[in-house]
Amino acid sequence: MKKAVAIFMAVAMTLGMAACGSKKEETKAPETSKAAADTEKADDTSKADEGGSDKPVKIGWLQKNQSNAFELVINGGGEAVLEQAKADGIVEEYYLLDGQTDPSTQVSQANDLVNLGVDAVIMQPAEMDGSAPVVDILHEAGIPVVLVNSLTSNADDCEGISASNDVEAGEILAQFVLDKLGSTGKYVHLQGIIGNTASIQRTEGIHNIMDKESGWEMLDEQSAEWQGDKASKFAQDWISLYGDDLNAILCDNDDMAVAARLACIEAGREDIVVIGVDATEAALAMVADGELEGSVRQDGTTQGAEAVNKAIALAQGKKVEKETWIPFTLVTKDNVSEFYKK
Amino acid sequence: MEKAAKKQKMIFGMNRSVFMKKYGIFIVLLIMIAFMCVASPTFRTWGNVVSILQQVSVNGVLALGMVFVITAGGIDLSIGSMLALTSVIIGKSFEFSDSIWLAIILSVVVCAAFGFINGALIAKFNMFPFVVTLSTQLVIRGIGYIICDGETKTLANKAFRQIGLGKLGGFLPYSILILLVVAVVAYILLHWTKFGRHIYAVGGNMNAAIASGVKVFWTRTLSFVWMGICTAIGGVILTSRINAAQPNIGVGYETDAIAACVIGGTSFAGGVATIPGTMIGIAIIGVIYNGMNLLRISSYWQTVTKGLLVIGAVMLDMFINKKRN
Amino acid sequence: MAGEHYILECKGISKAFGGTQALKNVELHLKAGEVHALLGENGAGKSTLMKCIIGLYKPDEGSITFDGKPYSARGPADAINKGISMIHQELNPEPHLSIAESIFLNREDTRGPFLNKKLTNQKTEEILKEFDFREAPTTLMEDLTLAQAQMVEIIRAVSCNARVIIMDEPTSSLDSEETEHLFRTIRDLKKKGVAIIYISHRMEEIFEICDAVSVFRDGTYVGSRSMEGVTREELISMMVGRKVDSIFPKVDCKIGDVLFKVEGLTGKGFSDISFEVHAGEILGLSGLVGSGRSETMRAIFGLDPLESGRMWLEGKEIHIKDPYEAVKLGIAMVNEDRKNYGLCLNRSIRENISLPNLPKKQKGFLLNQRREKQEVEEVSKQLTVKAASIEDEAYSLSGGNQQKVVLSKWIMANPKVLILDEPTRGVDVGAKSEIHTLMCKFAAQGMAIIMISSELPEVMGMSDRLLVYHEGKTNGEISREEILNGEATQEVVLAKEFGEK
Prior knowledge:
Chain B is mainly alpha-helical. Chain B is 75% helix and 4% strand.
C-alpha cells in the first residue's frame, strides 16, 4: 500500500516537473535555436526512411540542471527539436527532469522515467562516476541512452553520444595563452568541482599543452568549485603571493574567469591573461568591451539538438551513428560579434 | 567564591578564567597572525591585508546579522538563498533603471521582508528556527530562479562593480567601509539600545523575558529582519564582485557566518555574544582562508580546518556554560 | 505492637540536602494488605521519604526493612524488581506505546532477537480482564483518559508482582466516578495482600479508604494512628506546630483605598476568585501547593490565559493579555520559579534589573547607559544586593541575592500592585528577614502587595489579611486582628486549607 502511494507520488511529481519544463521551453525555444531546429528537422525526415516504426515515441531527458547558464543553452537546443517533433507527431510526449547537478537525483529520476515507459533517454551526467548507474538502470529496462555534453565512466555502453571533447577545450585555453604570451611564463589554474568530468578533461587538455613547454611553470592549481566568489579570493591571494611572476590564470569555466579577471583589474594587474570556457553572456560582454581576452565556446545548442535527434531515432528502433563530436571555437574580440549582441 | 578567585593568577587585573573567556579567542587570532607572518612574507604586505579584509566583507556582514539571530535563540539557514535572490533582484533592477541605490534599496526591502516571514513563523507559531529556515531557504532560492528564469545575466551597470572591488581614493576598499559601517550599527543596536537588551534577554531566558514584559514576538522577528538586511548588504557586495546576476550562488554561506559567530564567543544556548568577539571570529576565518591559500594548501583542507575550529569553539562554549550551571 | 508483621518498615531515616535537613529520624510501619495514608503540610517530608524508598535518594541514616529483610534500591527500576512501585502524581506515559507495550516495558516477550507482540498482547488481555478494564491491549496510551492511564500504571505495578504500591495524590485529576473506580481497585488489591501508601490532601478520601495514617511535620515523624477513632481535628493539630524560626517585622501602616480588585476570575486550576487589595495593604494567600494560588496570580499578570472574570485597577476596568500590558499598567510579579521566570542567569545584574525599565532609560533611540548604571547602583544598594559589581552575572549570586535582584527590578519599575509568589523560597534566614522589612517599606509607600507563601507562620505573620485557598476556590478570609488576638491559629488556617468550612 505504502509502495503504491510512493510510486503515485513519484509519478505525480515527475509529471509536474515535466509540465514546468515544457512551459519554460515554450517561451525560450524560438530565440535560442531556431536555426538548429530547422536544419535538424530536415535531418529527421531523411532518417525516417531508414526503417523502424513511425509510431509516436516517448522521450525522457535527464537534464543536469535547469539553472546554470550553459546547461540552459544545451537544454534549449534540444527542447526546440523536441517541441517541433511533437508538433509533427513524431514524439508523443517528452519529459524534462531537473537533476540539480546531483547524481543521486538523476538515479531516482531514471527510475521515474522507467515507470513512465519512455522509449529513449537523453542524459547530461551530473558526475562522471556518480551518474553511471543511470545507464545500467535504463539498460535493464531495455531503454537506449544518449549522453549529451559530458560522459559517464561507462559511456562505452551507451547507444549514443553527442558532446564536445573537453580535452580539446583545455588545449585551446592553453594554446591561447601560449600564442598571447610566448614561450616563457608562469600560470595558475582554477578548477571546477573535483570529480566533475568537464573539469577533469579540461585539466587534462591544459596539461597536454603546458607540460610540453619547458618555459612555462604552473604555480598553483586549486578548485574554486565553479564559483565566481571563490575564484575572486584565489586570484587576490595569488596576486599578493606571486606578484609580477604571475602571467596567466586559466579557468575551467567563465564564472570563475570573469571574477578572477575583475580581481586582476582591481589590483591594477591588467597584464594578467585570464581565459575560461563556456562563453557565457557575462564573459562575452567583457570580451566585447576588451576587458577579457577571450573565452572558449562550446556549441551547446548543437549538442542538445543532436542528442535529441539520436534519441528519437533510437526510440523508433533505427540505427544511428554512435558518437558525434561538436568542435569548440575560440571567441576573441575579433569574432565576438558573431555570438554576442549588446 | 570571591576568595577562590583571588587565589587565581591575575592577568591584566582579571583572574585568569575571566580573562580567557573575554580575550581567549583574540589571543588565538594573534597567534595565527604571528604564525602566518613568519610562515609567509606575503602575508605581512599591505596589499594582502586589504585582500583579507575584502574577502571577509561578505561573510562579515552576514555574521553581524547572524549574531543577533543566534543570540536571540534562533538560527537562519536561508541566508545563502537570500544572497542569490539579492543577486537576481539587482540584475533585474538594472534592466529597468541604472540607479544603484534603487537596486540596493530593493534588495534590502525584499530580504527584510523574507526575514520578517522567517521570524514571524518562528515567533508566532513557536516553530523550530532550524526547520522554518531550512524550508524558506528552498522557497527563496526557487523564487530567485523564477525571477531570472534560471539564467545568469551580466549586470547592465558597470559602475556597480566598484562596490565589491573599488577603493576609496585608490586606497581603502569600499567593501571594507561597508563592513565597518555595518559593524558600528550592529554594535550600537546590540549594546546600546532596548532592542539589543531584549535580544539578550529573550535568548538568555525566554520565560524570564516574557515575565519582564518583553514583547518576545517582536524581538525574535526583528532579529530575523536585521539578518535579512545584513544579507541584502552582503549580497550587494557579492554580486558586484562576480559582476553577474546569478541564481545559484551563496551555497554554504550560512555555515561560514554561523562559524564566525560561534568562534567569536556567541553561545548556541542564546543570550551571550558581543560584536567585537564576532569581528574576531570573522577575522579568524578570513586568516584561515587567506593563510592557507598563501601556503598553497588545498582548498579542501580549509574546509576541514574551519569545521574543526567550530567544533573546538562550541566545546569551549559548552565548557563555559557547564561551569555556570 | 510486638509480634505484628510489617511488610515495609523504615526506621530512623534522616536525609539532608546541603544545609537543609529534609528528614530527621523518620519512621514508617506498613502492614501487608493495609492502605496507609501519609499526611502533612507542603515540605513536611512525605515525598522525600518516598524517594528514599524507591531509591531516588539514598538516606544518610536509618534502615529500611522489606518483608523482614534489609532493603535498599538502586533506583525505581530496582525497586520495582524488588516489589515496590510508585504511581506518580504527574503521569508521563509514552504516548506512542500501546497499553500492552506500556505494561510490559523493559520486560518484553521475545522470540530470538525479535519481539513477540502476539504473546505480549495475549498476556495483557488476560490481566486487563482481571481488572475489568475495557480497552484493547493495542490501544495507544495517548488515546486513554488520565484515569485510564493511571489504571494502566497500577496494572503495570501489579503485574510486576508489586507488594507495596505508592500512590502520590492519585485522585487529583479524577472525577468522582473515576475516583470510585480507583477505590474499588484499591480494595481489590488489599484483598490480594498488597500494601498501599496513599499520599493525599483530601481528608474525606483518607477517611474513606485508609486503614491507618502517619503524620509528618517539618521533616519529622509526628505519629501514627489507626483511622478508626481518630478525628480530623486531631490530625490537623498533629500537622501544625511548625516552629516560628524568624520574627516577622510586620509594621502596621496606613491602609488606603481599594487599589486593585478582581471578580469571578476563572482559569486553569482556579475558579470564581474574587478579592480586593488596598493601597498599603499586604494580602496573604495561603493554601496547599496546587490549590490555585500561583495559577490565579499568573493569570492576573498575563502569563496564563483567563477564562472569565473582571479586574479593576484604581477603579478603572483593565484587561491584561500579556505581561507587557501588566507591566505597563503598573502590576509587577515576582515569580515563584526564579530560575525560569525571574532572571536571565547569564546576563549581568545591571541588565536584569533594568530589563523591564528600559523605556524609561532611553535617550532618543539609544539607552542612557550612565543613568542606567547610576539608578541600578542605587536600587541595588537600597535592597542590599551583595555583589562585587553590578556587572557580575546573575548566576554567580546566592539564592537570596538573586531574589533581591528580582525584587530590585520590580521596585525600579515602581509598580502599583506587587505580586510576590514565594518571595523567600530558597533564601537564607538573614536575607529572608531583609525581604520582609522591604515588603513593609513598599507597603508604607502605598503599594498594594499580594503575597503567596507556603510557610504558614510567614504568611500569617506578614499579612494584613489572609485569603485561604482550597482546591481552586477561596475558602474564607482571616483578618490581622483575628490572627493577633489568637482567634485564628495555625490549626484554623490549616483546617481551611484542607477544606474545612
